[in-house]
Amino acid sequence: xxxxxxxxxxxxxxxxxxxxxxxxxxxxxxxxxxxxxxxxxxxxxxxxxxxxxxxxxxxxxxxxxxxxxxxxxxxxxxxxxxxxxxxxxxxxxxxxxxxxxxxxxxxxxxxxxxxxxxxxx
Length: 121
What we know:
By secondary structure, the chain is an all-alpha fold. It folds into 2 domains: 1-68, no CATH class; 73-121, no CATH class. The chain is 46% helix and 0% strand. It is built from 5 helices and no strands. The two termini are 28 Å apart.
């Protein structure tokens, strides 16, 4: 079965990102062990405006083909404040579930459905 993944837009003329991307690419092969079902998380931190989201987008674009289902949710803090957690849950479920299967109306329903669908305990 073939999956089509949407790549995220990243400017081709990035300046000053090579060092950071090289460091991240050293870490990813160890984390991307295709035999393991382990869950890994990477944190990218720093002052606002230094390119954290850009680095995340580049890395996403480089590994997206290795997964059946993917999503990239940006601006989580800002969107959760302005639109609420329910909005973010709906966005996540929209991206990972077949159409019409993400009927949630409360944050608690969203928590339950996300745990159920992502097989989290």
